[in-house]
Sequence to fold (196 residues):
Amino acid sequence: MRIAGPALAALVLLFAREAAAQDVSPGPKVVISTDMGDIAIQLDAVHAPATVANFLRYVREGHYDGTIFYRVVPGFVIQAGSWEPNLQTRGVHDPIPLEAGLPNLRGTVAMARGDTPASATAEFFINLADNAALDHQPSDAANTTGYAVFGQVIAGMDVVDKIAAVPLGDRGPFPGAGPLTPIVIGHVVVQPDTAP
Fold:
């Protein structure tokens, strides 16, 4: 069978798009080393460039090293960022614009924020389930709803699930959601072969 004309052009265009998509790296990979194991994350600089740049700034400054996962809500999220084991907090940079758009599916990594859209700083969470309630609302043209997904766990989801299963209590900023034994992030590093 011979393909010619518009059908051939469409086929060539399809292959070109697929090849181009495969050549584009969405962003660097980082490894979060905790005292319960390592979590590898593929960052998505294509869909959340400002959010990825912000996260990498904190990583390169060593901001996350020695902090804890201070919020655990089984079936929902685990959260970390600026809290130390002694429950002191670290200083942060100015907030960034909201880049909501990607869905908050299980294993995705998103920025935590306050009540206003452009209030995310260093706090991030990993979704333990598909959390559609955290997604950008399609009717929101001003991009003021949802939480910005900027990465995906690509290895270590078993570690995330172990963290989600630890005993909890009132230790930390969220009553009933603080691990009774601190879960410390030893360091967060960018994998050298994926650095921007």
